[in-house]
Design brief:
This protein has a domain of 218 residues. By secondary structure, the chain is mostly helical. α8 runs parallel beside α13. The longest helix has 32 residues. 71% of the residues lie in helices and 2% in strands. The radius of gyration is 22 Å and the shape is globular. It has 20 helices and 2 strands. A hairpin with a 5-residue loop joins β1 and β2.
Length: 490
């Protein structure tokens, strides 16, 4: 298949979302079927391209003699696109049930569709300038989803999200322009498009790398640029599930991996002060996010801080600057996505059916919502790292990759992962214990009217919970896949 076809999974959902918004009166009665059909059609197209598209560069148009917008489907792009194309239809199905009684559903599904296309643009970008363009379009397409409730809290969260994202974009843009102005290639080549014969960058080059890393890591919620993410949990649960599992935060981690392994190259960054600094920030964020999660009494905000922590698991693996580190980072990117989207779906079911937002309101709910809390228990076990589930596999690979280095900061990071695992058990199983084993003095009188969520919401949860178990039991192919993507770094 020609690489020109890569434009289709980008343009199809964008145009479908725009058409839905423009023709909202005629499509109002069919909005659910229209949105689900558009997403499923696009996902089918994406998987056909993953399997059959040639790994060639397609130039959309040239901005200058040295800068062009290009698309290219290399193994890393296919990996990220496959994750997007698999989880987006399930989230759409869940959203149909969740948004059934909400207002402004046409507006919601319009931007929901457009965000799909923009995220695919991030996955298929062939160089850094193309990735940057789609990366910033992602901010514009998702801010409408964050602000959707139109409450004062949602407006403040959206404003902060935009400010943080634009600030990070400024840092990233300066770094990209520095590379271009110095005649360095912006194309993505595994091992670094900066030639392997190039001398190690001087302090200014390392400073530019750190600045670009931090700019891109704003969407990955690295400390101290993380505060927007917990506040964005005010958005409808299908949005927070996508923000925390696929679209925005994973795009941030994906961009960092592109910068580190496909532009600069791990060989010229390994052992420098820049590596020590970014690895230290990632290790600190791992513990900080988990500690903040333990303190939260708001359930979705607790899960949001958990995302802050787990995103830095990915960044920590990436900053090891080794083949094993990159493979482990990709593995955790995949497994954390399915674990966290499941956890948010469960929290959304409780909020949708009962209006309960806080942990102390979960007492005894497992009796009335058995499927919801059974699937949440699966996500809690996996995120904590209990074998043989997916969370254990990816965290073990991260620890193994760190142990293979001789960097002091890598051992600090290993300690951070272990501390975070303990804190994860605390903040995840607090909800499980309350739901299954309420305190003797707990007020359970309000449970009589509680019932399980609609099947249209439960089906995606059961499918993903099964994937969490099966992918952990049969993790070998996924481990081999991530290793094959990472091969050839040096």
């Amino acid at each position: 298949m020609s690489p020109k076809l890569l434009l289709i999974p980008i343009l199809l959902p964008i145009l479908a979302g725009a058409m839905m918004y423009v023709r909202h009166e005629k499509l109002f009665r069919f909005r659910n079927a229209y949105a689900l059909a558009a997403v499923c059609l696009n996902s089918c197209m994406v998987w056909c391209l993953i399997l059959f598209c040639k790994e060639e560069k397609f130039e959309i148009f040239r901005l200058t003699q040295t800068i062009a917008l290009t698309l290219r489907f290399d193994p890393l792009g296919r990996f990220f696109a496959g994750l997007i194309a698999t989880l987006w239809p399930l989230t759409t199905l869940y959203a149909i049930g969740y948004m059934r009684h909400e207002h402004h559903r046409i507006l919601f599904f319009s931007f929901f569709l457009m965000s799909y296309g923009v995220t695919m643009g991030v996955a298929t970008a062939g160089n850094m300038i193309t990735l940057y363009c789609f990366y910033e379009m992602l901010t514009l397409s998702t801010v409408a989803l964050v602000i959707h409730p139109m409450t004062d809290e949602a407006v403040r969260a959206a404003r902060q999200y935009v400010i943080y994202s634009i600030g990070g974009a400024a840092f990233a843009f300066i770094g990209i322009m520095y590379l271009s102005a110095n005649g360095l290639s912006l194309d993505f080549i595994l091992g670094g498009s900066i030639s392997s014969s190039t001398q190690a960058p001087q302090n200014i080059g390392l400073f530019i790398y750190v600045m670009t890393f931090l700019g891109l890591s704003v969407k990955a919620a690295i400390f101290p640029f993380h505060d927007w993410l917990p506040k964005a949990s005010v958005a409808p649960t299908p949005v927070t599930a996508l923000l925390h599992a696929v679209a925005v935060v994973k795009a941030g981690a994906f961009a960092v991996i592109r910068l580190t392994y496909y532009v600069y190259g791990a060989r010229i960054l390994a052992g420098t002060w820049a590596q020590t600094l970014v690895m230290g920030l990632a290790a600190f964020t791992v513990v900080y996010g988990s500690a903040k999660a333990v303190k939260q009494t708001h359930w979705k905000r607790r899960l949001a801080y958990s995302t802050v922590s787990n995103l830095s698991y990915i960044l920590f693996g990436a900053t090891l600057m080794t083949q094993a580190g990159m493979a482990a980072a990709l593995l955790h990117m995949l497994f954390h996505a399915i674990i966290k989207i499941l956890a948010f779906f469960c929290a959304g079911c409780v909020l949708h059916m009962t209006g309960r937002k806080y942990l102390h309101e979960l007492d005894g709910l497992a009796r009335k919502m058995p499927v919801t809390f059974a699937t949440f228990t699966v996500s809690a076990l996996s995120l904590t790292g209990i074998p043989p589930l997916t969370g254990f596999v990816s965290k073990f690979q991260l620890l193994a990759a760190a142990s293979q280095t001789e960097l002091p900061m890598a051992y600090v990071g290993m300690g951070a992962l272990l501390v975070s695992a303990l804190l994860t058990a605390i903040y995840m199983f607090t909800a499980v214990v309350r739901a299954y084993f309420p305190a003797k003095d707990a007020d359970l009188s309000g449970l009589d009217s509680v019932r399980e969520a609609d099947k249209v919401m439960l089906v995606p949860m059961v499918i993903i919970a099964a994937a969490v178990v099966l992918f952990g039991l049969f993790a070998g192919p996924f481990v081999q896949l991530t290793r094959s993507i990472a091969s050839g770094i040096f």
